[in-house]
C-alpha cells in the first residue's frame, strides 16, 4: 500500500466519526489526488483558483481520454472540492462553479461578491467565515467582532449559506499558544451556535454547524477543541514543492 492510502486509512481510524477529513492537495499532482480517491477520500481542498480549475479539467479530460467515451468511473466526479485560499473577487468565476464550499471568506467585500455571483447564477454558496485567531499579523481573516456583526446581518445575503468558521492557529511549536487560539475560535463558534438555535424560527443560521480547525501539525489538538473538519495536506501527500 502506498503512503497516501495508508495515511488516509490511518486518519480515518483515528478521527472521531463526526470529524470530516479534508485532503489538502494544493501543489500536489493529479496522480496523488487519484490515489487518495482510490483509497476512498472524497473531499479535497485547493488554495489557488488556477490550480483548482486545471485539476478539475484534467480529471474530466482524463476520464474522456481513454476511449473517447466519458467514464463516470475514472472521472472522480463525486469529489467534493473546497476552496481554502485567499480568493480575489475577480477570480470567482474560476472557483464557484466547481466548489461545494468556500472555507476562506476573509472580508466583507469578498462575501458581498460571492453573494452577488450566487444570486445572479441562482445558486446558494456554502461558506465558512475565516476568523483571524493566530498571533501573526500576516494571516487573513475577520476579527471576532467583525464575524458577529456580519452574522447579525446574515439575512442580507440571500446567496450565502453560513456554515461555520475556519481558523488557522499560530505557526509555533508552543502548544499553549495553539490551544489558546483554538479555544478562542471554539468559544466564538459556541456563542454563535447558541444564538442560532435561539432564533431557529428565522432560520438564517440553521446550517451553522462547522468548525474547520486543524492541519497536519495541530489536528489532534483541534479535535479536542471541537473541530468538525480537519484540513490535512503534508501528512497525506508529503512536502509541497
Ligand atoms: C495548506 C493549507 C492547509 C494544509 O496544511 P498542512 O500543514 O500541509 O496540513 C490547511 N489549511 C489551509 C488554509 C492551508 O492553506
> Total number of helical segments?
10
Give helix and strand order, one letter per element, not per position.
Answer: HEHEHHEHEHEHEHEHEH
Low-confidence stretches: none
Question: How would a crystallographer describe the biggest sheet?
Answer: 8 strands, parallel
- As laid out across the biggest beta sheet, the strand order is 7-6-5-4-3-2-1-8
- Give the CA-based shape: globular
Q: What proportion strand?
A: 15-25%
Termini gap: 23 Å
Give a structural overview.
- With 241 residues, this protein is of the alpha/beta class.
- It contains 10 helices and 8 strands.
- β4, α6 and β5 form a beta-alpha-beta unit.
- The protein is globular, with a radius of gyration of 18 Å.
- The relative contact order is 0.14.
- The mean pLDDT is 93.
- Pyridoxal-5'-phosphate binds next to β8 and α10.
Q: How is the topology of this model organized?
A:
Elements: H1 3-14, E1 20-24, H2 30-38, E2 43-46, H3 49-65, H4 72-75, E3 80-83, H5 92-95, E4 101-105, H6 108-120, E5 125-131, H7 144-152, E6 160-167, H8 175-198, E7 210-212, H9 219-224, E8 229-232, H10 234-237
Parallel strand pairs: 1-2, 1-8, 2-3, 3-4, 4-5, 5-6, 6-7
The chain binds pyridoxal-5'-phosphate.
